[in-house]
Amino acid sequence: MSISPFLLPLLQGMMFSSPSPAIEIKPGQIFKGKVLKLFPDQMALVRIGGTQVMAKLETPLSVHEETWLQVLPQSNPIALKVVSGRQNRTGNQMGNDASPNHIKVSELLDSLGITPTKNSEEIVQYVVKNRLPLTKEMILFFRNAFQIASESKEPLSSAALRESWYKSAQIILDKNLPLTEETLKSVQMIINGPSIGSLIDKLMNAIKVLEIPSQQAADQSSSQSQQIQVMNRSQAEPQQAQVSNLSQVQSQQFPFSEQSQFIEQAIVQLRGKKPVNDGVNKLIQQLIRVLELIKGFPRMDQDNNHSAIEAIKPSESFLPQMIRKLGLAYESHVKQILFQPDAVQVPETLKGELLRLFSVLERADIHETLQPRETTQLKDAAVKLIQNLNGQQILSRNDQNHPFVNYLFQIPFSTASGEYRTLYLQMEFKKSSVGKHIDSDNCRILFFLQLDQLGDTLLDVNILNRLISIQLHTNHPMVTKVAKFFQGILSINLEKYNYRLSSMKVSSFPEEKVEEKKEMKTYQRRYRGVDIRI
User: Fold this and answer.
1) What is the pLDDT of residues 213-270, one digit of tens each?
2) Average pLDDT in the 374-399 region?
């Protein structure tokens, strides 16, 4: 299941929410400038974005004239020459959207020493629209990103899809990370890929159809491959079809209790197998570890509301515990092992076990024993899950010297239908004056859930001087009545922690996409910071 269209602009807004750095004028850089004042000796006061600079104009310009300018090398004071798109304010001005009708893109590329192509012209338009420095290095950076994206299995026929790859590359640029195939695909998995819950479903389906050879008794030697059984036939309901292997399971919908039994029975069946070689033995052990980790993820079981609430409530230890289980701190633990091998033990995490699973699937004896189609399917599912986890880590990477911190997490949980869903958790907060802890007096939290009965549910919590306001977005008709019923109870419980509830509102999601985009722009401007503790 992909991210809701209502939530995606909020998440992307958080990714680019850091303040824009001061403009650094470099030789060869091209930018759109407007002449504010003229002085003798061809000197002028020029506005570049929100910055005003004194520069010498190589080409005469008039006051209020707006045009494309390029910084000349080795000039003191700064010298600027006109590139293209020269326009007077009374004429047809260039808009902020950088419309191709207003910009001679080919001339801009020629000035940068780059051969104009359709791809390069599209990159220039993206760079200008997002107000990035228009330099040769910037164009080459995005061109390399486009080359990596072109080599992926995903077609780039859609302009929206190509822009999502550019956004992923821009995040890598903002985070000051190297542009590689893995970093780009990992960010793209968060921006435009399926959720972690959907990826876990895909991994489970790949395990279900996996045929693992086993040394069987003499009366079973006619077949060297048996698939893991999902359930004991005696446990299946009479009206259900008899299931003898996992390949028959993936087309059926099982309630949570049977989904849980599938994992338990799969682990039992795997432990009972007699591997034919060392590669198969390591594969069995890795599958067991992965299944045991997935089994420990929280659940939303509608038949047992109390245990469901206890499993997913945001207690003080819930988020750190899930971060460790998913492996979002995996590299940090490995680093500690390298420098303090006796002091730290790397915990079992989903990311760590998936990396080991991928390594096992690369073994030669696995390729010789298992069906290539099945190992490819399992490997692809594992790689995409790893990319999702890497993407979360990249988007949560923050500058230690920056006063604000951004986090984005996807927490998987299973539902009553047996599917895995995703809790999206967005956090943007200011570090407190004491150390680098969260300022829990002034912060904000954003939860997003996709549930079977309630559907899309967005919970937005604002905390200002320990005064809490809650905004709940949902299209379910009964939520308003339920929220009013629990508002008094919530207020009393918050006061125990020295917080006061100021308001609690319930509203539906926008229906029309055009209105939705406008609402998102206003919503994002009000967004200041978040926290996970109430």
Assistant:
1) 877 533 344 444 444 443 333 344 433 333 334 444 333 433 444 566 778 888 888 8
2) 90
- H-assigned helices in 113-217: 118-129, 136-150, 159-174, 181-192, 196-208
Nearest 5°: the CA angle 78, 79, 84 is: 130
Query: Which DSSP category does 508 fall into?
Result: P
CATH of domain 24-152: 2.40.50.140
pLDDT band at 28 (very low <50, low <70, confident <90, very high): confident
Residue ranges of the domains in the chain? 8-12+400-526, 24-152, 196-391
Average pLDDT over residues 324-347: 75
Cα→Cα distances 40→44, 45, 54, 73, Å: 8, 11, 12, 22
Q: Across the chain, what does the average pLDDT equal?
A: 76
CA gap 250, 199 in Å, rounded: 14
**pTM of the predicted protein model:** 0.76
Strand partners, 501: 468
Q: How far apart are CA 385 and CA 392, in angstroms?
A: 11
Task: Quote the distance between the C-alpha of residue 529 and its chain's center.
Answer: 18
> 196-208 and 372-395 are packed helices; what angle lies between their axes, rounded to 10 degrees?
160
Confirm whether 8-12+400-526 and 24-152 share one CATH topology.
Answer: no
Give the C-alpha separation, 21 to 18, whole Å. Answer: 9
Location of structure tokens 């051969």: 115
Tens-place pLDDT, residues 134-174? 889 999 999 999 999 988 777 677 888 888 899 999 999 98
pLDDT digits (tens, 9 = 90+) for 419-445: 788 888 887 777 766 655 667 788 888
Question: Residue 362 gets which letter from DSSP?
Answer: T
Domain 8-12+400-526 has CATH 3.30.750: yes
Q: Do 122 and 143 form a contact (C-beta atoms < 8 A)?
A: no
Left (φ > 0), alpha (ψ -120 to 50) or beta: where does 502 sit?
alpha
pLDDT score, position 14: 53
Residues ≥6 apart with Cβ < 8 Å to 139: 109, 112, 114, 120, 123, 124, 127
AA identity, residue 262: F
Beta bridge partners of 422: 412
Length of the chain: 534
In the DSSP assignment, the letter for residue 22 is: P
Alpha-carbon dihedral of residues 515, 517, 523, 529, nearest 10 degrees?
160
**Helix axis angle, 136-150 relative to 118-129, nearest 10°?**
120
- Tell me which DSSP letter residue 236 carries: S
Segment 204-214 shows an average pLDDT of 86
Residues 6+ apart with CB under 8 A from 483: 472, 504, 506
Pairing relation of β-strands 51-57 and 43-48? Answer: antiparallel
Which one, of 140, 153, 148, 139, lies nearest residue 168 by Cα? 148
What phi and psi values does residue 432 have, to the nearest 5 degrees? Answer: -75, 165
